[in-house]
Amino acid sequence: MVRVAKFKTFRSYLPRCHRTYSCVHCRAHLAKHDELISKSFQGSHGRAYLFNSVVNVGCGPAEQRLLLTGLHSVADIFCESCKTTLGWKYEQAFETSQKYKEGKYIIEMSHMVKDNGWD
Question: Which chain regions cross the lipid bilayer (predicted)?
Answer without folding.
Answer: none
